[in-house]
Write a structure and sequence with these properties.
It contains three helices and three strands. It is α+β, with helices and mostly antiparallel strands and about 70 residues long. A three-stranded antiparallel β-sheet has the order 1-3-2. The radius of gyration is 12 Å and the shape is globular.
């Protein structure tokens, strides 16, 4: 069974984070590089993420920021 993916656009909308925030967390190694999956689409190249893992990780980061 193929892993469920979420596009970068969907991820940013669903989590209410900015593009800049996502890439800051990547630079700080809070989000692993291997989760940034680049795929060709009919509109060019898009970035996707493993849905369950990235949503769980962003939720945890946001929770830690609040505390």
């Amino acid at each position: 069974m193929e892993e469920q993916l979420i596009s970068k656009k969907e991820l940013l909308e669903e989590t209410s984070i900015s593009y800049g925030q996502l890439y800051r967390w990547k630079r700080k190694n809070l989000i692993p590089e291997e989760w940034f999956i680049r795929k060709s689409t009919f509109t060019g190249q898009e970035t996707f993420f493993p849905r369950a893992e990235i949503l769980k990780r962003i939720s945890k980061i946001q929770e830690m920021k609040e505390n």
